[in-house]
Amino acid sequence: MSTTLDLNHVEAYSEFMQEIGQEMKQYSECFQGSCQLNRTEFTLIDVLRRQGSMMMKDLSTYLMDVSLSTLTRLIDRLEADNYVKRSTDPKDRRCFMISLTDKAAAILEGYPKLTSELAAEMLKSLTEAEQATLMQLIQKMRPQISKSRGGIKDEAGAYKA
């Protein structure tokens, strides 16, 4: 399905996403500080909270600005601090699955509540019908998030800068 995009809409939506990102960043930085984790460490364990155990290469797609060697060192640190654990993938013993420990799960327990409070605050300005419409639109757009993870590609399939 090809759709013509109004550039004013694209710009307004882009600004809105950036505003949401800034709000989420402030919430997560506050939470990170209480956990004594840096942004990347927090992001990694939050991805594992949401997605479950993952192989390192899959985890790297969620941490786009982190090389595999840096990710390995990051996991080494988090494992030493008992936030994550490595286990052999039963399907391929050459691969490791990374998962949260009970310690990390306990720390992250309050984070979804915090982000839900932000979402509830934002939704207050909408009627129930508008909220339902927004949810339908989000569900329609959601597949594009995973398609564009890692960057936007040009017509030749190369990532745009």
UniProtKB/TrEMBL annotation:
Alphabetized GO MF terms: DNA binding; DNA-binding transcription factor activity
Q: Which PANTHER family match?
A: TRANSCRIPTIONAL REGULATOR, MARR, TRANSCRIPTIONAL REPRESSOR OF EMRAB OPERON
Fetch the Gene3D superfamilies from UniProt.
Winged helix-like DNA-binding domain superfamily/Winged helix DNA-binding domain
Q: What is this protein's name?
A: MarR family transcriptional regulator
SMART domains attached here?
HTH_MARR
Q: Locate the HTH marR-type domain: which residues?
A: 1-143
Q: Which residues form a coiled coil?
A: none
